[in-house]
Amino acid sequence: MGHTTAYSGPVSAFGAGGRTLVAYFKMVNEAGGINGRRVNVISLDDAYSPPKTVEQTRKLVEDQEVLLIYGVSGTPTNSATQRYLNGKGVPQILIATGASKFNNPKDFPWTMPFWPSNGLEQKIYVDYILKIKPEAKIAVLYANDDYGKDHLDGIKAALGANPGSKASIVAELSYETSDPTIDSQIVNLKASGADVFICASTGKFAAQAIRKAHEIGWSPLKFLTNASSSVSAVLKPAGLENSVGVMTAAFLKAPNDPVWANDKDVKDYVEFMKKWNSQDNPNDFYATVAYVNAAMLRHVLESSGDDLTRDNVMKQVANIHDVRLPLHLPHVVLKTTPQDFNAFRSLQLQRFDGEKWTDVD
């Protein structure tokens, strides 16, 4: 199995996910593998750089002859390899991005996303905003890449679905992932008079945004994309006290939430991390995501039986029926069809209380 992620570069926090994926299948192999086979996961550093992702993916496909590529984080990185992998007939599955372009079985039959769609996430935010701030003035910070632009499109689509609403975007500013800081953007977004802030950024810049907003006394209603909702990698660097009240749309149980203190799945996960990946914090969102992602790949491989062909792998991911995975919130049930590879249909709105994420009705 081939995998790339950012072990270095501006989003090196993703590395916790890569280490967790590799560790998961070491555990599986020690227990006898899958259908009697050992699973060899080769995970390479792409530094969240599309050209590097292409280089490493070619190495995996052409030199290592992997069965598939899976679990790659990021919209720009997956975009860079989508045509190449589809042209080669290599499954690009369970990729950690919610961009709408990846759910296109007709044109890209070898690509399957495994993240709630950006459009679904932004619809949840906009619906909530319209309920509590009907005349909201919204400011948006977004990455100047496919990831950020897809979230911005999702916000606009959700607002457009409510033509009678008085809420509107009053400012939208982008940043480059190579930028050292987004301080000037936050200052300018505050100057717009916005009372709602949606941050469609990766973790490093989300932390900077929260911290800078606090420094300059800007206190809008804040939303973070769930990809940047890690308490340890984002909210702690931002300052936990600065992050109180920030909202996100979740699909995973938070291992440090007391409500799950006696949950078997959470206990199993924490024990797994202690034994197999003690380098990373069990409460790290990227580790939690990777653990669930690995469990889904295990399900796909088990379902494939002895027919471990690329065609059969895609048949399995296109026919997921009412699958529940460890650490998913209770109402999250996965389903795909050959016409729709988007497995997620719902999310839970949450607010940060200074220590943990709590559900919002």
How does this structure look, described?
With 361 residues, the chain is an alpha/beta fold. 40% of the residues lie in helices and 16% in strands. It is built from eleven helices and 14 strands. The chain has helices at residues 15-30, 50-63, 75-88, 118-132, 146-160, 183-191, 203-215, 231-238, 264-276, 285-304, 310-317; strands spanning 2-5, 42-45, 69-70, 92-95, 111-113, 137-143, 168-175, 196-200, 221-224, 247-250, 321-323, 334-335, 348-352, 357-359. The strands form five sheets. It has a four-stranded parallel beta sheet with strand order 7-6-8-9, with helices on both faces. Strands 3-4-5 form a three-stranded parallel beta sheet, sandwiched between helices. Helix 1 (15-30) packs across helix 10 and helix 4 (118-132) packs across helix 5.
Give the helices and strands as they follow along the chain: EHEHEHEEHEHEHEHEHEHHHEEEE
Biggest sheet record: 4 strands, parallel
Structural class: alpha/beta
Tally the helices: 11
Total number of β-strand segments? Answer: 14
Which shape, going by the Cα principal axes?
Answer: globular
Query: What low-confidence regions span 5 or more consecutive residues with pLDDT below 50?
Result: none
Approximate strand percentage: 15-25%
Give the N-to-C terminal Cα separation.
40 Å
Quick structural gist:
The protein is an alpha/beta fold and 361 residues long. Helix content is 40%, strand content 16%.
